[in-house]
Fold this sequence. Notes:
Blueprint: H1 2-23, E1 30-31, E2 35-37, E3 44-46, E4 52-58, E5 65-71, E6 79-82, E7 94-97, E8 103-106, E9 112-116, E10 126-129, E11 135-138, E12 144-147, E13 155-156, E14 161-162, E15 167-171, E16 179-186, E17 192-197, E18 204-210, E19 217-222, E20 228-232, E21 237-239, E22 251-257, E23 263-269, H2 272-275, E24 283-288, H3 292-295, E25 310-313, E26 319-322, E27 327-329, E28 339-341, H4 352-356, E29 359-365, E30 367-369, E31 373-377, H5 382-390, E32 397-401, E33 404-408, E34 415-417, E35 424-430, H6 446-461, H7 464-490, E36 502-503, H8 506-512, E37 519-523, E38 526-534, E39 538-546, H9 557-567, E40 577-583, E41 586-592, H10 599-603, H11 611-631, E42 646-648, E43 654-656, H12 661-664, H13 667-671, H14 696-711, H15 728-737, H16 749-752, H17 755-768, H18 779-787
Parallel strand pairs: 36-40
Antiparallel strand pairs: 1-10, 2-7, 3-4, 4-5, 5-6, 7-8, 8-9, 10-11, 11-12, 13-22, 14-19, 15-16, 16-17, 17-18, 19-20, 20-21, 22-23, 23-24, 25-26, 27-28, 29-35, 30-34, 31-33, 32-33, 32-35, 37-38, 38-39, 39-41, 40-41, 42-43
Amino acid sequence: MANSAFSLRHFIYLIPLIVLSIITPTHQVVPLGSSISARDEGTSWVSPSGDFAFGFHTLPNSSLFLLAIWFQKLPEKTVVWSANRDNPVQGDSRVELTNNGYLVLYDHQEREIWKKPKAGNDRVTSASMLDTGNLALLSTDSSHIWESFNEPTDTILPTQRFNKSIQLSSSLTQFDYSKGSFQLRLRDDGRLVLYLVAVPSGFTYAPYWLTDTAEAGLQVVFNESGYIYLTLRNGSSVSLTPGNIVSTQDFYHRATLDFDGVLRQYVYPKTNESRASWASEWSIVMYEPPNVCLSVLTSLGSGTCGFNSFCALDEQQKTSCRCPPGYSYLDPNNTFAGCKQDFAPQSCQLGGETEASQFEMKELRNVDWSLNDYEKYYPINEDRCRQACLADCYCAVAIFKDDRCWKKRMPLSNGKMDYNVSRKTLVKVPKGNYSVPIAPISTCRKEDRTALILIGSVLFGGSGLLNVLLLLAISIVLLFAYHRQKLMDHRPDPSMLGMRIHSFTFKELEHATKGFKEELDRGAFGVVYKGVLELDSRHLVAVKMLDMVVEKGEPDKEFETEVTAIGQTHHKNLARLLGFCNEGQHRLLVYEFVSSGSLASFLFGSMRPDWNQRMQIALGIARGLVYLHEECSTQIIHCDINPQNILLDESFTPRISGFGLAKLMKADQTRSITSIRGTRGYVSPEWFKNMPITTKVDVYSFGVLLLEILCCRRNIEADLENEERVILTDWAYDCFSETKLDLLVENDEEAMDDMKKVERMVMVAIWCIQENPMMRPGMMKVTEMLEGVVEVSKPLQPYSMSSVG
């Protein structure tokens, strides 16, 4: 009786634990004999939280299946592991946890495709899909006999780790999960390495990215907080994840070696709160290498992309492979497979000079195929470089730079397109097939072309003498029209000033500025002078003399091309470019004159500007940047957003000036750490690192500028007595984290009465100045947050502790 009472009492104590274990199980047990058929759509083994599922995943645009693990709750069920990536199966296939303790995949003919575990001493008694995304085969004591975490495919998840016996292999393409051309390994020498791999042989070429951990690296860890790091023998670690990361509680995390050879860490919002400031999609928070197009360089193999193609990155750091003129993809479904010629190549038979005249050189910009040279000329000019390739039947491409010419033959490898590839690339193609013929009458108005067609009809129907007379008359008319048009082109029409770009002589601009006498401003790209163009009436202009060194005193066609692109931008928040000078060593730009001066003089003068007016100025600048980044035909990264480059017109509408200048500079000038073209205090951290320069550099500068507009003070004020307030960005974050935002606007009564907007502005600014560019929003999102269209979530600390001090 006593024993019964004792047992009952203890059973009552255990009830809460039993109930709790039922409500929140640590894992769901899959017993022996369980199976899933590929035909049973929607059937899977799901983890207790419902975050992950194991079963058959239908391949896109296919009737084949992968035995896989994926994120179950997301609209796109992202695959994180697969058993049969190189051997997908048909619909009558099944997977079974057999009664003798093996997990086996059978195809539609009942053949074993995949089987785990290998023979061992311990016997599998059950399986479980865990909340971590790990599929485990368990023994009687719930220890793991086999687990998917120990055999990853292309992805690792939080709580996962791997050592020197494990590797990641990329997928072949975005929708083909079979092994691709890239591998991540922890080598025996302690370095974490990315390799290019020959498919299908598996031969590894030289590494294109590796950590500086020789004889030190032990294990790669993806911890529960979302950080990926490499542990070292001395007990320390090297982090791959940036200093600030969103939590695994509110976001799903994964790190994937993508099919383009980039190791990327992604996050996806779980909750409605996190979705308020993040897109409902996978967002990148880390990637290595910084630019895969420039990193992969091998003497054997095709490089990042297939042969005869070139690699390029977009603003989201997504890689694309492109074909040169006259070439097309070998496989339209796999653009990484390379490109083929769409024409018969030039013959090498004797007498080939005649055939050479049937080819021409088409120009590509910022493109190169490295390590394909078979001949080099120096010194040589561009025209002779073209002719040397046209006359050589082996030559497919010529590269010209600085009086040097390299000839390249097929197949072309290591193709890359990047802003820093400052070379002129000439691709040989047949004449006519890949070029647009130039028609002299194409500039005529529609009614002029109609008249010429009518005249031509008369020519065919009239007598020979009439034909001659009409031809003579037409020639006189066209000659007169030509000279009249040249006369009109030489002098700008006052009514059209600013509507089309105009070429000025240096003497004209020297006269307009009275010898460059009145200086308006001085910035990172040159000095601005006030001038007057004497046309039918006087037009005030601002003339910027670019700080450029031109070695040759010759016009630069590339400069004119870029200026023309800048001149085609039209937006109420951009300063209009009216013209340019490209003469000898002189490079000048002519802008409309904006009457109210720069934002710097407006903000930092003796009088504090109106609060609402400042907010409208901030919004106008944001809209101008959205246009430059996303809406104009050629994307423009400003690279020097600061108060001196924001001008105000008579109604105090902000006009961004100086945009496009970074691209006019030489590549080695803009990217070199010792000659960064930004303005001190506004330069984003990636300028100082081996990272690509994207639109996010402008987002960073805008964040700094937004705080200056908010507080009416410069970002850096070294003469302040309170050292904590010297750097505005640091002080603003401190005030925000300590809920003391009133200190930022303590002398501004209008702002003090609108603290909700102050808080929103500060939060937007802190998101913009995140050290990791991937954590910064795009300017469209910034604009929406400023307008109050979307909620602004609590920002992270902008700088990692390792970067402070």
